[in-house]
Amino acid sequence: MDNKQITIAAVCAMLILLTLVFACSKGCGKKESPSKRVMVTQGNPKDNTIIEEDYEEKPSYQSSYSSGGENTSFYVQEDAQPPALLTEADIKSIQNRRQKSREKLSKNAVEWLKNKTNDPRFCQQTIEKYKIKSHQGFVNGSYAFMNKDYKTAIKFFNETIKDPEASAITKYFALQNMMNIAYETKDLELYFIAARMNALICAKEDLSILGIEKSTHQLDWVEKVEKSLKARNDPKYFEECVKMKLDFYKYGMKREQAEREVKKDIELYSNLYKELIE
User: What's the CA gap between 267 and 229, in Å, rounded?
Assistant: First the structure.
């Protein structure tokens, strides 16, 4: 075999080798997942027309929550556990501990205030302030009044007034608050009930620390104002007011003059207590 023939044979062998390498490299790559075929029935279910459609299998996930849009789900593993929650017994136990803590703090505060009322270093004004702050009924009533829970406030202030351990100063301010509640609720009857009780305290108790003189002047004033306001629409109270004028001035005033004075009182107190009676 001459040199020319040898060269041609070598080239052919080289081409055959390259063809084999290329064929092997295609078969050694990653195999694609075979597509599945699904049978889809068209038209009436009884129709025998069947169409085969190809689709690619996609990985499936277990969704724990979805906000409703695409690609917005959060995925968890199948063996994932939810966070531990408090049982009813746990919640009740926590609430009981908190309640006991609040009760303890409240008791300690009351004891501290009572100790202050006996502290000789304080003046009488300071001691009276501590007496008011240490009375639980007054404190509860004031809190309810502040929150405009008037029914509850009246209940606690009534308890304060009836409490024999409450100081005269504490009862005085409890009645003042009841008068303010009556003003807010436009309760004329409640206002004068509280006003009369307060006037009795002023007549019997020593309120000089408040600059109030012990006398019956407050009682007389309350009676006059109450009857004058009621005399606006009630002839019976009008007659009582006229009689009070005549008795006070004895024989120095005639009836006509007394009636004029009563009408002036009615006008005066109607203006002063306009917000209460209208």
Answer: 9
